[in-house]
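Thread: "does anyone have the structure for this chain?"

Original post by V.I.:
We have the sequence but no experimental structure in hand. Need at least a predicted one for the grant figures.
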Amino acid sequence: MTRGINRQAIHIKDIGSPYFEEAIFIVSKNADLSGMTSSDMAEEARKIVNSYIKRYAGRPSTKHRWLLAIAVILILSAVACFIVATSLL
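Reply from O.Q.:
Generated one for you, tokens below.
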């Protein structure tokens, strides 16, 4: 727990992710907030969350990408062998 620090934060409870329940954004000390309403700030935070979810949701891990690459190579090799075998007949 941090005491004695007064910072602005935006708390979004429903971010639409199956993995995370909420997100908390700490507003920068140097941010120029003139002309921004609280709904503008919340919308900006929601855009960041949505962008992150689109970029990383459902993205396979490195291990799964290697397994997928090996499977594709094996399937293409099998197809090539089949084509060569049928052309020899």
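V.I.: this helps a lot. DSSP finds two helices and two strands in the chain.
O.Q.: and Residues 28 and 39 are 17 Å apart (CA to CA).
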